């Protein structure tokens, strides 16, 4: 075991407004054994358990002499363990990992065709926002290691995200992680691939080579850890170069299920201001949608940054849907309901889909090779889209499962 020349490490968050977290100060000493001090308003309830956990982690990493100070603001066990391990690995070179048990509820996989109306961004170094995120029922939870994490906090955020994937119940939401920009993001994979991540977001994706490098490392880790589940990818297009290469990127790997556009970085790359009218991004959004449809994957729109204006969000969602997007990102739980409501099929779409599906049923029953509605022939892709609309309407509670009985 090798020790750093620096013998003090700091990990975690503290200060006004910090909750469900802790701040750890660890000093490796030459003698004196293990000294553990815990400062917490709930010490009387959890002090002994936290002290026992801290001692166990230090012993797990074979640390015999150290001073550990924990300033606790209500951290759960997996958060406390992540903070302590991060501090240890700032000082100690060890290939061991202290992993919380995998929550039974988290042993689920997701499918390529899964609904991705909403994906909720959560800063990867802020545990308080992770703990109850699943109860808001977004389609996906994004644990963000990129822009939402300060540069000097990225190392410790990896441990927090890893433990969250294992120990926090997200109530069936697709567990997503946005890694850092490649090549830096390759280092993030060790902390997420072995721990049941469902989908990885690839920021600032500009060329197919980035996807190739990423998948090579993912496959190495899957083989190393005997992982058979598919890990999906969502490249994020955030530059003019990325827009021009969008179709090639969308086709570059079979595990790409969707592609998103990030308009803050895209407009910055163009040197223009992002507006609610979005005329400055119309070309890029149209290119991304067409690239996705041609490649058979889901196009996902950018986030809407005004978390207080639900009317403006509604208008943005409707515009996004008209352009052909299947969903968008959100940065606050209150946006989820609006996004789900207006990305899901409306009454006119449902009624049209019902007529098409009934015509398909009738043609199938008669053994006909073609489907027609009135005097108009219906192509197989139209029938497929109508069936998907019906399934979405049923899943969203807008249509009864036995709707054919009422038709």
Q: Assembly state here?
A: single chain
CATH architecture annotation of the largest domain? Alpha-Beta Barrel
CATH level-3 fold name of the largest domain: TIM Barrel
List low-confidence stretches: 1-5
- How many helical elements? 14
Strand order, main sheet: write it out.
Answer: 7-8-9-10-11-12-13-14
Q: How many E strands?
A: 16
CATH class of the largest domain: Alpha Beta
- Report the biggest beta sheet as strand number plus sense, adding barrel if it closes: 8 strands, parallel, barrel
For the residues shown, what is the average pLDDT? 93
CA radius of gyration is 24 Å
Helicity range of the residues? 40-55%
Measured distance between first and last alpha carbons: 72 Å
Structural class: alpha/beta
What gross morphology would you assign?
A: elongated
By CATH, the superfamily of the largest domain comes out as Phosphoenolpyruvate-binding domains
- Beta-strand share of residues: 15-25%
| SSE run | EEEEHEHEEHEHEEHEHHEHHEHEHHEEHH
- Total separate domains: 3
Strands, helices and their partners?
Layout: E1 2-3, E2 8-12, E3 22-28, E4 34-39, H1 43-60, E5 66-72, H2 77-91, E6 92-93, E7 118-123, H3 127-130, E8 140-144, H4 154-167, E9 174-178, E10 199-202, H5 208-224, E11 232-237, H6 240-244, H7 246-250, E12 258-261, H8 263-270, H9 282-295, E13 298-301, H10 310-323, E14 327-330, H11 334-343, H12 347-365, E15 371-373, E16 376-378, H13 380-395, H14 403-406
What does this structure look like?
Strand 15 and strand 16 (376-378) form a beta hairpin. It is built from 14 helices and 16 strands. The model is unreliable at 1-5 (pLDDT under 50). The chain has helices at 43-60, 77-91, 127-130, 154-167, 208-224, 240-244, 246-250, 263-270, 282-295, 310-323, 334-343, 347-365, 380-395, 403-406, and strands spanning 2-3, 8-12, 22-28, 34-39, 66-72, 92-93, 118-123, 140-144, 174-178, 199-202, 232-237, 258-261, 298-301, 327-330, 371-373, 376-378. With 407 residues, it is α/β, with parallel strands linked by helices. Helix 10 packs parallel to helix 11 and helix 12 (347-365) packs across helix 13. It has 3 domains: 2-93, Ribosomal Protein S5, domain 2; 104-343, TIM Barrel; 347-406, no CATH class. Strands 7-8-9-10-11-12-13-14 form an 8-stranded parallel barrel.
